[in-house]
Amino acid sequence: MGGLLLPDERPLETFWKHSKESAYRPRETLARAGETRYAATLPELEVRIERADEGGAHLTLVLPYKNIWLKSHGERFEATVEATMKIVDAAGTEVWTFAKAFPVDIPQSRLKSVLGGNFMAEAVAPLGPGSYTLSVTVTNTNDGSKASLERKFEI
Fold first, then answer.
1. Which DSSP category does 66 fall into?
2. In angstroms, rounded to a whole number, what is the distance separating the alpha carbons of residues 152 and 78?
């Protein structure tokens, strides 16, 4: 058999085949019929923490669009990115939580330019002076891929 093969023995051409029912999935093979795979990770998640003007912390989640699996729907590519954040103080007491689903909707005509940029989500946590730990989990509901991180910070 000629040509390049994916790790699961399928021809490389089947990986990038697109149709209205297909999806853009970066650098990962799709599960075969009847096969269950564990959710992949969303690489390169980062969080920016800055002092908010109104007090507390201004939090910005940053995730490259190229790492988000987008489903095609006609002339659009879509995903929903769910973000959950929790902040605990130095004593381990939960002082703030946040959960929100962010729809991603990209026209096919802009897909190539958008994939070079970042998905960003922002929130403000009203906090007093002190030491804190932020825990973040981001999930792409299209494929269940997740990224988590934990970061200590002070205000």
1. G
2. 33
Closest CA to 37 of 4, 79, 74, 69: 69
The answer to whether 130 and 143 have CB atoms below 8 angstroms apart is no
Give dist(CA 88, CA 52) in Å, integer.
18
Domains defined along the chain, listed by start = 12-154 (2.60.40.10)
In whole angstroms, give the CA distance from residue 70 to residue 136.
Answer: 21
Task: Give pLDDT tens digits along the chain (155 positions).
Answer: 445 544 555 544 444 444 334 444 444 444 455 544 444 677 889 999 999 988 899 999 999 999 999 999 899 999 999 999 999 999 999 999 999 999 999 999 999 999 999 999 999 999 999 999 999 999 999 999 999 999 999 99
Going along 17-142, which residue ranges are E strands? 23-24, 46-51, 57-64, 70-73, 76-89, 94-107, 118-125, 131-140
